[in-house]
Amino acid sequence: MGEARLRVDAVMREVERDVRTRLRQQLIKRGGAAEYEDEAMFDAVHAVIARAVDERNPDATILPELLDSDTDWRLQTHLNLTTHRPAIGRFILTAKRRLLLPLTRWLFEYSQENFRRQDRVNRVLFACIEELAIENARLRRALAARSNNP
């Protein structure tokens, strides 16, 4: 009966802190931002990015609207074969499947370069967002220091 009761929230905070510490150390080892040497700075950046990932709807962002609202910015990697011809449509779809699907395999190799380029753009955008989060955390820290020392 003398067992100490663990508080789940406290244990989870400690686990999350350990995970963030390991992540921070791995990022520093791989050449991440020098600002991550400061644990408080990393925690502030992590909080901003985690809030953006966890609380934002990825389908409701302003970037695609600013770039070009007529273009769908999500990658479409599947092949959807349809027909608008009611009578001969089945035969056309069969031919497409027998001819187009083998060609799709060849086209996939050709398209891989485009996917690599898109992956690079995504990574650059992530880096930009991270830099903005770092700058945001830096400015918040400076503002807090200023308000504490009038």
Q: How would a crystallographer describe the biggest sheet?
A: none
Helix content: 55-70%
Tally of strands: 0
Order of helices and strands: HHHH
Q: Structural class of the secondary structure composition? A: mainly alpha
CA-to-CA gap between the ends? Answer: 53 Å
Q: How many whole angstroms does the radius of gyration measure? A: 25 Å
**Count of separate DSSP helical elements:** 4
Task: Specify the overall morphology.
Answer: elongated
| Mean pLDDT value | 79
**Low-confidence parts:** none
> Strand percentage, roughly?
under 5%
Summarize the structure.
The protein is mainly α.
Report on this model:
The structure is a single chain. This protein is mainly α and 150 residues long. The protein is 69% helix and 0% strand. The protein is built from 4 helices and no strands. Helix 2 (39-55) packs antiparallel against helix 4 (89-148). It is elongated, with a radius of gyration of 25 Å. The relative contact order is 0.09.
